Amino acid sequence: MERKERILERINNFVDKARSLGLERERWAFYDVNIQEPITFPEVEKILAQTANSSSYYFKPLTLHVKTKIKSDNGAKQKKPPSTSADSPETKEGDILLTLRGAFVVKQK
User: Fold this and answer.
1) Cβ atoms of 109 and 56 closer than 8 Å
2) How far apart are CA 28 and CA 25, in angstroms?
3) Domain range summary for the chain, segments of one domain joined by +
4) 70: which DSSP letter?
5) Which of 94, 91, 89, 97 shows the shortest CA–CA distance to 40?
6) Considering the entire predicted model, what is its pTM?
7) In a structure prediction context, what are the per-residue pLDDT tens digits for the chain, which is 109 residues long?
């Protein structure tokens, strides 16, 4: 029994410390990120730099997929499927197709 009590005491101390640091779900805001579009290399560098963690927020990634626009031997772009709409990512110009899904988790004051 004494071992069990020591473990429970340590768990309670951990939970108290976590609460004192603001590590409770209701003290954090979640902002979803869902990007799927062609972008330039400077833009992707800027986006990825913004996902760096800090003491007041962090980025929780779910999906990161990067697809390059590959050219054939004669330099022509690969043919696009005929069902592409005018506002779909395939019709926009950019160096790569970026798909990034996740959430920013921000500590509320």
Assistant:
1) no
2) 6
3) 27-107
4) -
5) 94
6) 0.60
7) 799 999 999 999 999 998 888 778 788 899 999 999 999 999 999 998 988 888 888 999 999 999 987 565 555 455 544 444 444 555 567 889 999 999 999 988 7
